[in-house]
Design brief:
Oligomer: heterodimer
Number of domains of chain B: 2
Largest interface: A-B, 72 and 50 residues
Distance between the termini of chain B: 85 Å
Low-confidence stretches of chain A: none
Number of strands of chain B: 0
Order of helices and strands of chain A: HHHHHEHHEHHHHHHHHHHHHHHHHHH
Distance between the termini of chain A: 52 Å
Order of helices and strands of chain B: HHH
Structural class of chain A: mainly alpha
Radius of gyration of chain B: 23 Å
Largest sheet of chain A: 2 strands, antiparallel
Mean pLDDT of chain B: 85
Strand content of chain A: under 5%
Structural class of chain B: mainly alpha
Helix content of chain B: over 70%
Chain lengths: 576, 80
């Protein structure tokens, strides 16, 4: 079992293609990606989706004469947004067999089994709120129709009637959204995850065994150990989905490390299980699959201000924090320095995983970085919206600030929702644009490490040497990102969203990626020594680095968001 | 024996913190209780780290794209 996240060494050979885990991560990742594309892009579901989009577009074109978005326009828009290729039988099959233990409050067994009676009781409990929200939505719709008809009768020439209709339609949209959210809570379904988890465990064991076999390792030994890793992963999902645990950002990944470490450092990881702790193999496969979710066409979602806040500030903070760690704090480990810098500046756990793998960080360094991120994310998620409200920062600026600084996307949405819907939309979108940066970050760090950090003083590195040293799975990660971005872009916004976001990704790559990362964190925990971890804490330098870097990030992001949203592009802010 | 006692102590400590202390704290501190209610209502999971695991991201993207598109349309219409 290796200590590093990446252990690529020596000269490259043709046989690496089937004997190295970097390549197996690529083959397995691309197998899932290509199968998903093959199914979703060639299915009847696609034809149906195209027809529905065309019909909705026709309605929207007819309604475009109005100076505001009409009721029919919004209904057509809702129809398009509800289209999901994952409703194809293949998508249903994948989603059914990759389910992880769900949420619970008091009884952990609720995450595995929900009986018919429990489902009915939960639905019934949510019904009064839904009835109330539904009545309000219907009332708001009736008012909106009257206002729109009045504006239409005046052939949209009366500005006062137009404004009144626009306002009434806006109220209906808010009420309809609340009713939709309330309705979702009345549709509780029964489930029993035990058979599907057993099936999934067997599938994943076989899936990862293919590479294990060709890499010349013992498949029975791997499978034996894999089941302990899988069991820790399942338990991690159970604990991470407890309502309060997840509220503070303590999810399955964190529990995977904690549970694994508790086992490893108290009763000890059994010898027979150690060959299943293939940290690097799971991480790299997960990262290649994650590449399918790094969609470059997302970066224009909020226009130029979003690009400046997410793609200009972030690299500056990343580089300055790294230099600060090296020159001022004199961090003994440059890999720990860059992983914390990327984790803090880019997007938390996902950036930490990608960077750690790209620069060959030790698993203890990855664990430490993620631990720091979890603690500060929990604090910032509560403190930032409270501060923004207290000081009276506008919602859009507050949302952009939150989106650019809080590490994890879920916590960003949570903090944004605490301020209001607009703040949540802006915050989550800025974070999404920043998420896309992990591809560039991983590639940049891998190149920098190959050409600078791993060289002796005065040594010049040729292209062939760079190729030998370069972590090849990063190429798979980038290739997946470029391929999926290009296909999604060529399909266009709505079709791309229905087939790629809500098809290839939601019903193909993401469920497997989620499990690959959970397995890797469980494996990290099972093979981590407390003492080694404590060694990296010495002097508190990682904490100082995080605090200084995050302070700089907070200041620069706020300044950039203010300049972009309120000085350079106020018209965009007004429209939001 | 020491190892097993250690394991039990660690497990107990962590479990008490997450599953007893944090719920108690959340119920007692108004801002934490309010946050809990907002998260429950919107079904937001703060422990999800990547955007594709957070449905509110897609909702936000649609909202903002819609807002920016209507602004672009308005500019086109206003242009002489």
């Amino acid at each position: 079992m290796a200590d590093d996240v990446v252990i690529e060494r020596g000269k490259s050979q043709l046989s690496d293609l089937w004997t190295k885990e970097d390549y197996w991560a690529i083959w397995l990742g691309f197998f899932v990606i290509l199968v998903s594309f093959g199914v979703y892009l060639n299915s009847e579901t696609r034809v149906e989706i195209e027809k529905k989009i065309a019909a909705a577009n026709q309605i929207q074109q007819q309604e475009a004469a109005a100076p505001f978005k009409t009721i029919a326009w919004y209904k057509a828009d809702d129809e398009k947004k509800g289209l999901k290729a994952s409703s194809h039988p293949f998508g249903k099959f994948v989603l059914h067999w990759t389910k992880h233990p769900g949420g619970w409050d008091v009884n952990p067994l609720d995450s595995f089994i929900r009986t018919e009676e429990q489902a009915k009781a939960a639905s019934a409990k949510a019904m009064p709120k839904y009835e109330e929200a539904k009545a309000k939505a219907e009332e708001a719709l009736a008012a909106a129709k009257i206002a729109e008809d009045a504006a239409r009768a005046a052939k949209f020439q009366d500005a006062t009637l137009n404004e009144a209709a626009k306002a009434a339609i806006g109220k209906w949209r808010d009420a309809a959204k609340a009713a939709k959210e309330a309705k979702a809570k009345t549709e509780v379904k029964p489930f029993n995850l035990i058979p599907t988890l057993i099936g999934l465990g067997v599938f994943l064991a076989l899936f990862f065994s293919i590479g294990t076999f060709f890499m010349g390792k013992s498949v029975p030994a791997f499978i034996q150990g894999f089941f302990l890793v899988f069991l820790v992963g399942v338990l991690a999902y159970v604990l991470g989905n407890q309502t309060i645990s997840k509220q503070y950002g303590f999810g399955a990944e964190a529990w995977g490390v904690v549970l694994g470490m508790l086992i490893a450092n108290t009763i000890g990881t059994p010898q027979w299980a150690k060959q299943g702790c293939e940290v690097e193999y799971f991480i790299k496969t997960g990262l290649v699959l994650l590449g399918a979710e790094v969609l470059f066409n997302k970066i224009v979602a909020i226009g130029i201000p979003g690009i400046f806040v997410a793609w200009v500030v972030t690299p500056i903070v990343l580089i300055v924090t790294f230099i600060f760690g090296q020159k001022v704090l004199k961090m003994p480990s440059p890999t720990l320095n860059i992983v914390i810098s990327a984790d803090m500046s880019v997007c938390g756990t996902s950036a930490a995983i990608a960077t750690a793998a790209a620069c060959r960080a030790k698993k203890e360094e990855l664990t430490l970085s993620i631990g720091l991120s979890l603690v500060f994310t929990a604090i910032m998620m509560i403190a930032m919206p409270a501060f923004i409200k207290a000081v009276g920062i506008p919602e859009v600026l507050g949302g952009a600030w939150i989106g650019g600084t809080i590490d994890s996307t879920g916590a960003v949405a949570a903090a944004g929702a605490f301020l209001g819907p607009k703040a949540m939309y802006v915050a989550a979108t800025i974070k999404m644009i920043q998420n896309v940066l992990i591809g560039v970050t991983a590639f940049g760090v891998a190149v920098y490490w190959c050409t600078k950090m791993e060289c002796r003083e005065g040594e010049r590195v040729g292209l062939d040497e760079i190729w030998h040293r370069f972590p090849k799975f990063v190429l798979g990660f980038l290739a997946a990102s470029i391929l999926v971005s290009a296909i999604s872009g060529s399909l266009g916004g709505e079709l791309g969203s229905a087939l790629v976001d809500n098809g290839v990704v939601a019903g193909g790559t993401k469920p497997i990626r989620d499990w690959a990362f959970t397995l890797s964190f469980a494996a990290i925990g099972l093979s981590t020594n407390f003492r080694e971890l404590a060694h990296y804490f010495k002097g508190g330098k990682p904490v100082i680095l995080y605090v200084c870097g995050q302070s700089f990030n907070l200041a620069l992001t706020l300044a950039m968001a203010y300049v972009m949203f309120y000085i350079v592009f106020p018209e965009i802010t007004a429209k939001i | 024996m020491d190892r097993i006692a250690n394991a039990i102590l660690w497990w107990l400590g962590i479990f008490l913190f997450i599953f007893a202390f944090l719920p108690w704290l959340t119920s007692k501190v108004p801002i934490l209780r309010q946050m809990h209610e907002v998260l429950e209502w919107h079904e937001i999971d703060p422990s999800r780290f990547y955007y594709s695991n957070v449905p509110q991201t897609l909702e936000g993207e649609w909202y903002l794209r819609g807002a920016l598109e209507s602004q672009a349309l308005k500019q086109d219409k206003d242009r002489p």
